[in-house]
Design goal:
21 helices, mainly alpha, 70% helix, 415 residues, single chain, two-stranded antiparallel sheet
């Protein structure tokens, strides 16, 4: 009886994630509520005669996973919150853009920018900055929809190859299924799939786009210093993890502390109203709370014995085909709970299959506008971009996803 109630609550929680854009209730609120409620019920009505101490031990395992993910994202998002508040990123973009460019070339340029930027920042910021640049050009609605669609796919594709770029990639890495060296193999297929989508979306585009340079401002030395520390931290995470097996979380927190100390020294003589450490308050806490709720839900799902059901797909078909379908499924079910569920189900796959699964869950959500955080943000910022207008480009998206997945599986053969 208790298992049925908890399963119903979990199903409602996941359904509210999918229809967030319809009910206009932030998914962080719903997942946190249902996630905590499920665990409270597990304490009040323990399963299989478990003692409160045993339930507490299970919860502690879940909390440890949540804490690692929370702190990593908090560190990354604090860096980006500072640089974004100073207009540093957008300013750099406007400086490197030419005065005029063809719409076709701009399509490829936007794809490259979204891909690269999402590799070293969170998808939320990468989407917002990419959209800000494109929307400043005052493009016709039909063309704006195409650029926004490419941004969604490009942002999701760019994050899969680095643990700093995508949460699901980080989750798979922290679980020990892939290494950083393995993940770097995803760069080529992911990038090729973005360029393929850019080529298909740019068919028929022949106009010119004029760039305004009015937004160019002076870049402060302090901001440049913080940006250098950020990039150095990302590089250090990759290097120290590969060479010395230093946990990425530890390196990122060290980099964050360096940012605080250096900024405090550089700003000591400036008349500022905001302390550098205050930028921790500017990060997307609803995103962090969402992940807490999701992982609590998935943890409860594991305790009632339902995660084993996710292995059914892998018993009727080979992992490479099951992973492809799981990626598409992530367009309707948020990829974070989907990935967490599969990891907790302890499915046995080769590193080649785990690598292709990483690509599938990271990019598969691009198939629908509600399938990823980037898509939902794009829909909220671009009024012309609706569920149906995005769906009309689904064939292009599916082709690009398929090519990228095939490339990811092929590259996995070199592991």
């Amino acid at each position: 009886m208790v298992s049925t109630i908890i399963l119903t609550l979990i199903a409602i929680g996941f359904l509210l994630i999918v229809i967030e854009d319809i009910i206009h209730v932030n998914k962080a609120k719903t997942t946190l509520f249902f996630g905590t409620l499920c665990w409270i019920l597990l304490f009040i009505f323990p399963l299989h005669g478990q003692s409160p101490e045993q339930v507490q031990e299970l919860l502690n395992e879940n909390i440890l996973e949540i804490a690692s993910l929370w702190l990593f994202l908090m560190a990354a998002m604090t860096f980006v919150a500072y640089l974004n508040s100073k207009g540093f990123i957008e300013n750099i973009v406007h400086r490197v853009m030419p005065t005029s460019i063809s719409e076709r070339k701009l399509m490829f340029l936007v794809g490259v920018f979204a891909f690269l930027f999402s590799s070293v920042s969170d998808n939320v910021t990468a989407t917002l900055i990419s959209l800000a640049v494109v929307m400043s050009l005052k493009l016709p609605p039909k063309k704006l929809i195409k650029y926004a669609t490419l941004i969604v796919f490009g942002v999701n594709s760019g994050g899969v190859s680095l643990i700093t770029g995508d949460v699901t990639t980080l989750m798979i890495f922290l679980d020990g299924k892939v290494t950083i060296a393995n993940l770097l193999l995803l760069i080529a297929p992911a990038f090729i799939s973005v360029m393929l989508l850019a080529a298909m979306l740019s068919i028929g585009m022949k106009g010119e786009v004029i760039f305004s340079k009015s937004g160019k401002k002076r870049i402060e030395k302090t901001d440049i210093t913080i940006a250098v520390i950020f990039v150095s931290t990302v590089i250090s995470i990759l290097a120290l993890s590969v060479i010395y097996s230093v946990p990425p979380l530890l390196t990122f927190l060290c980099g964050l502390s360096i940012m605080f100390l250096v900024a405090q020294f550089l700003m000591r003589k400036k008349d500022i109203n905001k302390n550098i450490i205050d930028y921790v308050r500017d990060i997307e806490y609803d995103t962090l709370l969402f992940f807490v709720g999701v992982l609590l839900l998935v943890g409860a799902l594991k305790e009632i014995g339902m995660l084993s059901k996710f292995t059914d797909l892998y018993t009727v078909m080979a992992p490479q085909y099951a992973n492809y379908l799981m990626g598409i499924l992530s367009a309707g079910v948020d990829n974070v709970p989907l990935t967490a569920a599969l990891l907790k189900a302890n499915i046995v796959m080769s590193q080649q299959d785990w690598l292709s699964f990483t690509y599938a869950t990271g990019v598969g959500g691009s198939m629908l506008i509600i399938g990823s955080a980037a898509g939902i943000i794009a829909m909220s910022k671009v009024k012309e971009l609706t569920f149906m207008s995005y769906l009309r480009l689904s064939l292009y998206l599916l082709v690009s996803y398929t090519v990228g997945y095939a490339g990811a599986y092929y590259m996995g053969g070199f592991v």
